[in-house]
Amino acid sequence: MNPADRIALDKALEIKASLAGEEITVITAGPARAEQVLHMALAAGADEVVHLKDEVFEASDAYTTALALSQVIKELDYTMILCGNRSLDIGASQVPAFLAESLGIPQVTGVMGLETMSPGRVKLWRRLEKGRRQVIECPLPALYAVDSSAGQPRYVSEFSLRQAAKRRIRSLTLANIGLSQADVGPQASLIRVVSLSPPKPRPKKIYIPDGSLSASQRMSYLLSGGLAKGKESSLLEGTADYLAEQIIKYLIDEGILPK
C-alpha cells in the first residue's frame, strides 16, 4: 500500500473512533495482486473492501482510473473520501483531483490533519511550501488527499494479517459498473508517459591545477579542495558619464544587455 494511502486510512480510523455509526470502505482498482492492499486495509481496521479487478488498470492513466473509481463510489452512501496525496509509482498526484471532479465534490490536497466540527463540516490543516500550514474549513461530502508526512502508519500485527486473509473481498468487474476496457484502457487515457528517468546530476566543476606549477603548489591546490581563484574586483573612479559608460560596457560584456 502506498505510504500516503496508509496514512489516509489511519486518519479515517481516527475519525471513526470519534464518531458513532461510521464505517470505512476501502476501494482499489488493479490486477489480482492488488488484493494484498485490501488485506492490509482489513487488518488495519477497515470494515469493508472492494476490488475493481482488471489487468487493464496497469496501463490506465489518472483520468481513467479516477473515472472507474467514481463509478464504484457513486453507488455508496459516503460522507468523506480520504486518499493518499500521491502514489508510490508515478507520483503525479492527479487521481484525487480527477476523482473529485468526476464526483462533483470539493477537494483539499496536502492534508496534514483533520477533525470533525459541526455536522457536515471538517477543519483541516494543509501543508504549504517552506513549512507553512494553512487551516481551512470544508463542507461535506468532500475528498481529502492526505500527505505522506502527516504521520506514521500504525503497526499491523501478523495475527491481524492472517485473520484478514480469511475475510471476503468484494470483487467487481468493469461490466458491473457499466464500463468496458475501451473506457479505461490506454486508448481512453488522456495522459501518456513518454519516458521516465531520474534527474540528471549536476557535477561540480573540478579545478585542475596548471601544469606549469610545481608539484608542491599543485598538491596545495588539491588539498584545499581545488578552489580556483575568484575574479579580481576593480574600483572605478571618474565622472558620472564615464562611470555610466563603464557600467553599460560591463553589462554588454556579461551578456545582460544586447550588443
From TrEMBL:
Residues 1-181 form the Electron transfer flavoprotein alpha/beta-subunit N-terminal domain. InterPro entries: ETF_a/b_N, ETF_b, Rossmann-like_a/b/a_fold. Gene3D superfamilies: HUPs (3.40.50.620). GO terms for molecular function: electron transfer activity. It holds the Pfam family ETF. This is Electron transfer flavoprotein alpha/beta-subunit N-terminal domain-containing protein. It comes from marine sediment metagenome.
